[in-house]
Amino acid sequence: MTMARPFEYIDGALHVENVPLASLAERFGTPLYVYSRGALETAYRAYAKACEGRRASIHVAVKANSNLAVLNVFARAGAGFDIVSGGELARALKAGASADRIVFSGVGKTAGEMRVALEAGVKCFNVESIPELDRLNAVAAELGKRAPVSLRVNPDVDPKTHPYISTGLKSNKFGVAFEEARETYRAAARMSHLAIVGIDCHIGSQITEISPYLDALDKVLGLVEQIEADGVTIHHVDVGGGLGIRYDDETPPEIGELVKAVLDRIAERGHGHREVLFEPGRSLVGNAGVLLTRVEYLKPGSVKHFAIVDAAMNDLARPAMYEAYHAIDAVKPRDGAATTYDVVGPVCESGDWLGRDRALALEPGDLLAIRSAGAYGFTMSSNYNTRARAAEVIVDGKTVHVARERETLEQLLANERILPA
Ligand SMILES: *Cc1c(COP(=O)(O)O)cnc(C)c1O
Asked: What residues does the Orn/DAP/Arg decarboxylase 2 N-terminal domain cover (predicted)?
């Protein structure tokens, strides 16, 4: 397990740090995302500590949780960031990141996004194809700059995770095919407005073993040797993110264990002089958050019993999208016999479920905590069914900070225009 759960029962009531979750539901309503500042910082420190004394840096993957207050907690702790859009660049900068600690990933960067990122002075563009190199070269020429680039190579290893979140296989849209990488570096080296600075890979997400990382690393380091034989210097090796967390009974390696294994392998293979970048997302924020929801109705059925709650797939898409498991616990567990429920939302889709076959003793009005919702929770939320997006709060000891106000219907409708009469 990468991190102790920061959400504990005290006198029969689930708390976040020193605050009862029920009090947050009263104050801010539900559905509500609740994060623990301590948990965010503990996870970050685990990475930072394992990197101490090494030329290694941590670039928080913004897409896992892009709330400004969350990003700011990491920026204050000294993090760099990994972004995948111009929007995320704006967020990271607003949260206090310095541009020269931002790496720009993503398979479909627009010329406009490249321009803004070049002007801001990002550390590196993680480029995924020759057409993207061409475009970046042209944009940099326009601005009279040289764009720092790294190629995202696809090492074709199986991260042994869900097919939708594995990204390092040949069949994925991501990265430059391994066999073409050396030639692509040669092409990049010929482009006058690019400066090659590194190499990167990101093989997937929710990875619960170390071996896929080391397999990918071996392939990438072999490639680095070939590229340098061609006369191109690789300053940094970016090993991506992807470390898994415990949702149910998974046993991912500890953060420090993974970082050490990676850094040791790089050193053993004679690459210890290079800077190493990590791009963690889920493992920093996943278990630092819960989604708090209230039971609206209990609906018994002949085949299944349903607990219909006020959170839905628009708030937390992972179950509908990946059949992901999230533990669900009563905020104030009741004595008495449990019933097996499917915990579902009010959205008009059969895919709108949050948990299946959960044994819970419930009454309407009870509060539930959907665990491990800090990563790819709010950031994947939508307005489907014209549902305003949830509020987000960060708890720090006894202090509660509203990190995002609940969206109003007025805000939700503000950009729409009726046809003229
Ligand atoms: C999503 C992503 C990450 C973070 O992945 P996690 O599984 O959340 O750690 C890192 N790097 C890149 C390029 C990504 O796309």
From this structure: 39-285
Q: What is the pTM of this model?
A: 0.96
Q: Which residues are annotated as a binding site for pyridoxal 5'-phosphate?
A: 242, 279-282, 376
Left, alpha or beta for 127 (phi > 0: left; psi -120 to 50: alpha)? beta
In 3D, which of 34, 52, 3, 51 has the Cα closest to residue 244?
3
222 and 307 in one domain? no
What is the CA(281)–ligand 1 centre distance, in A?
Answer: 6
On whether both 113 and 224 belong to a single domain, the answer is: yes
| Structure tokens that stand for 109 in this block | 């960067």
Q: Are 332 and 188 found together in one domain?
A: no
| Residue 201 is among the residues annotated as catalytic for this protein | no
d(CA 369, CA 307): 13
For the chain, residues with pLDDT lower than 70 are 1-5, 162-169
Catalytic residue among 51, 124, 201, 348: 348
Q: Are 57 and 275 in contact, with CB atoms under 8 Å apart?
A: yes
Task: Give distance in angstroms: CA of 283 to centre of ligand 1.
Answer: 10
pLDDT for 166 equals: 65
Pocket test for ligand 1, best of 47, 58, 82, 376 (most atoms within 8 A of CB): 82
Q: Do 347 and 296 contact (CB within 8 A), yes or no?
A: no
- Mutation probe of ligand 1 site: the residue of 105, 150, 277 with most atoms within 8 A of C-beta: 105
Query: Using CA atoms, how far apart are residues 252 and 159, in angstroms rounded to an integer?
Result: 13
Structural domain range at position 270: 105-280
Q: Which ligand 1 atom sits closest to the C-alpha of 105? A: 13
Q: Residue 182: which residues within 8 A CB-CB, separation 6 or more? A: 223, 226, 227, 230
CA angle 130, 150, 236 (to 5 degrees): 160
Q: What is the pLDDT of residue 165?
A: 62
Ligand 1 atom closest to 200 (CA): 13
Is the CB of residue 413 less than 8 Å from the CB of residue 54?
Answer: no
From CA 323, how far away is CA 142, in angstroms rounded? Answer: 46
Looking at 280, 311, 327, the residue that finishes a domain is 280
